[in-house]
Amino acid sequence: MKICIFGGTGFVGRALAAQCVAAGHYVRVITRRRERHRDLLVLPNFHLIEGDPNNVASLRQELRGMDAAVNLIGILNPGKHASFEHAHVELPRKIANVCHELGVPRLLHMSALGAAPDAPSAYLRSKAAGEAAVNMVASRVGVTLFRPSVIFGAHDSFTNRFAQLLRRIPFSFPLACPQARLQPVYVNDVTRAFLYALAHRHTAGETYHLCGPQAYTLLEIVELIARTARLQRRIVPLSPSLSQLQATIMEYAPGKPFTRDNYLSLTRDNVCAGAFPAEFGITPNAMETVVPAYLAPAP
Fold first, then answer.
1. What sign does the CA torsion over 229, 234, 239, 243 have?
2. 52, 159, 176, 251: which has the fewest Cβ within 10 Å?
3. Confidence of residue 154 (pLDDT cuts 50, 70, 90)
4. How far is residue 228's CA from residue 176's CA, in Å, rounded to a whole number?
């Protein structure tokens, strides 16, 4: 297949691109800064193109003749150059409309577990609006939606960010939303599900919830990260009011490590109602079996 991946230079995109070319597919990735990602050029049957995915003319040029498009673009916090509306709604709508116009038969779209119009956070509400925008073309394009829980892996911004924060803050670590429930899913399990959907047309029209084998509280996850990284820290659970205060303060810190909208997302459990979809034939990996491979210090 000829597959165009949007967000192909990111954490999930790189893993998916590698699996696609290993399966014999041709992969095209559009990026605004090609020079930053030249390491990807070692992949065979892979084409890294410098362009603007927000430009409809550019989208038409890169999607023409493709068998499938995959949209992985997403942001955790809005910034100067991208809002939730822009990244999660307007861009998916443009991609979907061009797929419809050109007759691209498949579109796989990454949403988020908990996406809903009445969700507590702007992030989750925008993800729901993005799903609705993509589904507008479902009568002609085979659309498959994925709603993963938080995704972890060697180059993630989840476990690695907590490990960095734990290293920087000695002795006691104040943790907001300690009882928030999450069911993290391994990046390679997510990308294998995408690869299966690309090869099986019957997945069109479906929405898949992707979670790991176990649900944890955020406190349990941070304790696991601390143990794995061999960092002796006292994790101090914060109350809801102190959690909100921490979010308000950290929203203005460099890199926005935690925001008020992140806090609102964590007020709702991020867990799956059932097991990993059986049709993918995947036994999802637990954090305990994967995280030590990249966070445990060298002996």
1. negative
2. 52
3. very high
4. 20
Of the candidates 119, 28, 14, which has an alpha carbon nearest to the alpha carbon of residue 68?
Answer: 28
Contact 218, 243 (CB under 8 A): no
Per-residue burial over 70-103, b = 16 or more CB atoms within 10 Å of its CB, e = otherwise: bbbbbeebbeeebebeebbbbbbbbbbbbbbbbe
User: Are residues 260 and 213 in contact, defined by beta-carbon separation less than 8 angstroms?
Assistant: no
Q: What is the pTM of this model?
A: 0.96
Distances (CA, A) of 186 to 52, 177, 181, 254, 272: 29, 22, 16, 27, 14
| Sign of torsion over alpha carbons 209, 210, 211, 213 | positive
- The H-assigned helical ranges of 103-239 are 122-135, 159-168, 187-199, 218-228
Residue 12 has pLDDT above 80, yes or no: yes
pLDDT at 26: 97
Answer yes or no: is pLDDT of 35 > 80: no
Question: Which token pair is 125?
Answer: 């509400």
Q: What is the 8-class DSSP label of residue 54?
A: T
Taking the CB of residue 234, how many other CB atoms lie within 10 A of it? 9
Beta-strand ranges (E) seen in 56-192 are 68-71, 106-110, 142-148, 151-152, 172-175, 181-182, 185-186
